[in-house]
């Protein structure tokens, strides 16, 4: 017999049923498909916004309507994530995942056949409703089918799938837009949904919380009302004036409603968002990092589509190919982030990632109308690497700080801050872009209404004959100037995120939280 000091370490006790444990990687593959279809849609939309804005080839959507096509999805998604997570914990995560996928597929079809910007915005809101049931279910199922020692790697792959979608989305969108009408970028979701649903029925197990909480319709209503009011005010500020009484009142109402939401949730015995989660530093700092990095990234992605297509003259497909290094950086490093965390600690890795992301935002500042494109490729690759060092460790910190049976609620929080951060990023940085552009283009003879965005100006110039020829160069110069302001805003937000994780993120990864006594009774069946 080996002496005690030479005995191999005992394997951790198994908490996942053996038949599920054996096929855990197949389950992860199916969940990645569900994640891909949700993320793919937004990444495709980024290269399609120029076409949708075209009055001839698209719907003639204004920049504000394009922002709402993005934000209607995001706000409904974020507002319902709390309830979706609780419903999954209560009734079964697989059931809610299938429901969300079906709704998402139907709404994708409705988006594809939209006849006006208003119809598209409404259909996108329904897509957000479906996605709200998909996103938290994927992450909470991962937390239930993987043991704690394997969970960081699985979450790294889950995060890397976002990078894959970033790569596939723009390229797929570019190919579709070269051969089909703009609605094809939404129609492509339908076959993916069909394949995903069939795979989920046969492969993904169901699980739920043996002691679920009650629903919180009051909290959900307050969160939706507050977010919609806040973001609507920010968008109107970019369109009109930040000092407008309507804008200030709308933003103030949104902030007040969200404050009431926090007060209400703290006193509720069945809150949609348990604010006590945020007392744990690893939970709150990781959530803040996720929200801040997506605030900056979504704002940059929004203006990059216009820079590459309207200013540099590239096609949607070429635009998608230019975004490929961003995806490659994530795909290469996201699965490896768990190893970096074990070696250097979660605080060091996430701080380094935030600093790198911030540096890439500053990398947009010297870019102009003739900048060599290899510089942009390098910046995008480094941005993907930085993202891969932030998202998986931060997501795992949130999930590890909660009991396994509360995985739905934890997943809802991470996805909510991600989506709210992204929505506010598009709203704030998009509004900043519009304001600076409008100021820069003034005095060049551009008529009112055509000065809203570079696409509106170039469209007006194309229909104005010789008189519009003099608007093209000033419009492109004005957009580049406005883009620099938005990039600087992103860098400031990224720097705040780096400070937050360095100050409050624990040095080492948080051990997986213990389960409640009822965990032994948690269902896990095919």
UniProtKB/TrEMBL annotation:
Alphabetical list of Pfam families matching this protein: MFS_1
Query: Which GO CC annotations does the UniProt entry carry?
Result: plasma membrane
Q: Which GO terms describe its biological process?
A: response to antibiotic
Which top-rank group of organisms is this from?
Bacteria
User: Coiled-coil regions in this chain?
Assistant: none
Residue ranges of every copy of the Major facilitator superfamily (MFS) profile domain listed in the record: 27-509
Task: Classify the protein's membrane topology as the record does.
Answer: Multi-pass membrane protein
User: Taking the first listed entry, what is the main subcellular location of this protein, grouped into a coarse class?
Assistant: membrane
> What are the UniProt keywords, alphabetically?
Antibiotic resistance, Cell membrane, Membrane, Transmembrane, Transmembrane helix, Transport
Give the location in the cell: Cell membrane
Q: Entry's InterPro entries? A: EmrB-like (IPR004638), MFS (IPR011701), MFS_dom (IPR020846), MFS_trans_sf (IPR036259)
Q: Where are the transmembrane segments?
A: 25-48, 68-87, 96-115, 121-142, 154-175, 181-203, 215-235, 247-264, 285-308, 346-367, 373-395, 482-502
The terms under GO molecular function for this entry are: transmembrane transporter activity
List, alphabetically, the SUPFAM superfamilies matched. MFS general substrate transporter
Q: Which PANTHER family match?
A: EXPORT PROTEIN, MAJOR FACILITATOR SUPERFAMILY MULTIDRUG TRANSPORTER MFSC
- Classification via NCBIfam families: efflux_EmrB (TIGR00711)
Q: What is this protein called?
A: MFS transporter
Q: Which organism is it from?
A: Yinghuangia soli
């Amino acid at each position: 017999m080996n002496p005690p000091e030479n005995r191999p370490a005992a394997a951790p006790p198994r908490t996942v049923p053996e038949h599920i444990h054996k096929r855990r990687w197949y389950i992860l593959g199916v969940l990645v498909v569900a994640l891909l279809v949700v993320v793919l849609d937004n990444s495709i939309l980024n290269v399609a916004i120029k076409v949708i804005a075209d009055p001839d080839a698209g719907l003639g959507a204004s920049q504000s309507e394009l922002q709402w096509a993005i934000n209607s999805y995001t706000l409904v998604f974020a507002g319902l994530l709390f309830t979706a997570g609780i419903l999954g914990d209560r009734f079964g995560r697989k059931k809610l995942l299938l429901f969300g996928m079906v709704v998402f597929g139907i709404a994708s079809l409705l988006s594809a056949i939209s006849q006006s910007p208003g119809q598209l915005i409404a259909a996108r809101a329904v897509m957000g409703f479906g996605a709200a049931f998909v996103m938290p279910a994927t992450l909470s199922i991962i937390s239930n089918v993987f043991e704690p020692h394997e969970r960081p790697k699985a979450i790294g792959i889950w995060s890397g799938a976002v990078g894959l979608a970033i790569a596939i989305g723009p390229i797929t969108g570019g190919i579709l837009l070269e051969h089909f009408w703009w609605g094809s970028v939404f129609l492509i979701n339908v076959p993916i949904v069909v394949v995903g649903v069939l795979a989920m029925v046969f492969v993904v197990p169901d699980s739920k919380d043996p002691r679920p909480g009650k629903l919180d319709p009051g909290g959900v209503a307050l969160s939706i009302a507050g977010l919609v009011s806040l973001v609507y005010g920010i968008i109107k500020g970019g369109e009109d004036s930040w000092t407008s009484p309507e804008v200030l009142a709308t933003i103030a109402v949104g902030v007040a409603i969200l404050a009431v939401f926090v007060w209400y949730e703290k006193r509720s015995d069945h809150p949609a968002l348990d604010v006590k989660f945020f007392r744990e530093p690893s939970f709150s700092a990781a959530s803040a990092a996720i929200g801040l990095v997506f605030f900056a990234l979504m704002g940059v992605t929004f203006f990059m589509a216009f820079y590459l297509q309207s200013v540099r003259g590239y096609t949607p497909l070429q635009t998608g190919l230019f975004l490929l290094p961003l995806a490659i950086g994530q795909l290469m490093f996201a699965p490896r982030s768990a190893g970096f965390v074990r070696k250097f600690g979660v605080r060091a890795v996430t701080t380094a990632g935030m600093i790198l992301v911030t540096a890439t935002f500053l990398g947009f500042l010297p870019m102009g109308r003739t900048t060599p494109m290899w510089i942009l490729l390098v910046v995008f690759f480094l941005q993907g690497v930085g993202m891969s060092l932030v998202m998986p460790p931060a997501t795992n910190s949130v999930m590890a700080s909660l009991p396994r049976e509360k995985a739905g609620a934890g997943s809802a929080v991470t996805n909510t801050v991600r989506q709210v951060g992204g929505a506010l990023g598009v709203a704030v940085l998009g509004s900043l872009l519009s304001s600076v552009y409008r100021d820069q283009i003034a005095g060049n003879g551009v008529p009112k209404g055509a000065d809203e965005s570079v696409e509106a100006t170039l469209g007006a110039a194309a229909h104005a004959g010789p008189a519009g020829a003099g608007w093209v160069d000033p419009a492109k110069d004005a957009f580049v100037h406005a883009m620099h302001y938005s990039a600087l805003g992103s860098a400031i937000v990224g720097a705040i995120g780096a400070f937050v994780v360095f100050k409050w993120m624990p040095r080492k990864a948080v051990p997986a939280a213990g389960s409640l006594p009822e965990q032994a009774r948690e269902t896990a069946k095919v």
